[in-house]
Design a protein that fits this description.
CBS-domain, about 140 residues, alpha+beta, about 40% helix, 6 strands, CBS domain-containing protein, CBS domain
Amino acid sequence: MRSLKISEVMWNHIEPIRCGTPLPRVVKALLENHVSGLPVVDDQRHVLGFVSEQDCIHALLVSNYHGEGEPMVDDVMFHNPLTVSPDMSVVDLAQNLGAGKPKVYPVVDHGKLVGIVTRTAILSQLAKAGYTMEKSRFASAED
């Protein structure tokens, strides 16, 4: 089976979050894109952090309880997130997934964000590959 690369399954149409973005806009982006987290980048698309649904939930609860001003993504993002290369094999990433690992990975090429890859995308590709391999075995057995 040909080894699929991350670049073949990543999403490159999602706009990343910029530093200084108010949290309500971050929440809107997460909900509109149906993802559990997004990378936070500077003006040159260097990944500075990652913000998740869980980060937003906690920050919104705290800011509402304390009656503080509107939180910014910089206040809640996780700094130095795990990233992957577009040339990485889907199988290699799948083997490293597990409990406590991110559900969304920023894909970085030459230091700049080029997309994201989700666990769902990895699962989908593995399921397709399994189906194709099973179908191939079945067809060979009939010959």
